[in-house]
Amino acid sequence: MSPTVLVVEDDAQIARALLVNLKARGYAAHHAATGQQALRLAAEEHPDLVLLDLGLPDLEGRDVIDGIRGWSRVPIIVVSARGESHSKVDALDRGADDFVTKPFAMDELLARLRAALRRAHPDPGRAVVETSDGRVRIDLADRAVSVAGEPVRLTRLEWRLLEALARNPHRLIGRTELLTTVWGPQYGEESNYLRVYISQLRSKLEVDSSHPRYFRTELGMGYRFTP
Ligand code: CA
After folding, report:
1. With bands split at pLDDT 50, 70 and 90, how would you rate the model's confidence at 185?
2. For residues 9 and 18, what is the distance between their CA atoms, to the nearest angstrom?
């Protein structure tokens, strides 16, 4: 699965240039032309990176940063014509990861994007998680799963849930934390989503999904991945 980038930009021409270039380089991309739309898409689509214009028609870019940072560590690169150092400092203090001033060179922006994605996943030693029986292999860098050597297709949400669990093997992850990480901040109470998706992962990856070994339910609390 290719990384997904959320482009937040109200200038249609710049947005189009960004979307075309991202897609040409194999990224999936979503576009938001307003701050509200950006917050909604960030929560719904869980992009791997956000490119954020600060001057939006409805919200201040800083409010978008605050809104996303309230629940997510997704890398945010601010792309703005406001070159003054105070808006840069403000954006970085609020949790943006990098700042590119318009007009920008596409190659430089894409290099910064790759760097931000690398920093977000800095742990190559843990990039592959394998179950102790060698049956299930989860490649977090390539976003690929196989069972007994056969690739398994997961939906985007199944993958996100598996990734959240596989990055924390043996740790009990609370339901609210999982729901917020996978579905978004407003889904913290939707335990039924978890039940449905955990059972989908079990049926795709467990030997016997009625006696799960890898995806353990901790009653009333959450789930634990025990590879
Ligand atoms: Ca703008």
Report:
1. confident
2. 9
Closest CA to 56 of 44, 39, 43: 39
Measure 56 CA to ligand 1 centroid, in angstroms: 5
In terms of pTM, does the model score above 0.85?
Answer: no
Chain length of the chain: 227
Measured in Å, residue 10 CA sits from the centre of ligand 1 at 5
Q: What is the pLDDT of residues 101-118, one digit of tens each?
A: 899 999 999 999 999 998
With pLDDT > 70 as the criterion, what percentage of the chain qualifies? 96
Residues 99 and 130 in one domain: no
Distance 8 CA to ligand 1 centre (A): 9
Number of domains in the chain: 2
Task: Tell how far the Cα of 202 is from the centroid of ligand 1, in angstroms.
Answer: 45
CB 116 within 8 A of CB 97: yes
In three-state secondary structure terms, 168 is coil
Give 48 Cα–ligand 1 centroid separation in angstroms: 22
- The string of pLDDT tens digits covering residues 14-54 is 999 999 999 999 999 999 999 999 999 999 899 999 999 99
- Helix (H/G/I), strand (E/B), else coil: 211: coil
- How far does residue 185's CA lie from ligand 1's centre (Å)? 26
Domain CATH code at residue 146: 1.10.10.10
Residue 103 CA to ligand 1 center (angstroms) comes to: 12
Q: Please give the distance, rounded to the nearest whole angstrom, from the Cα atom of residue 27 to the centre of ligand 1.
A: 23
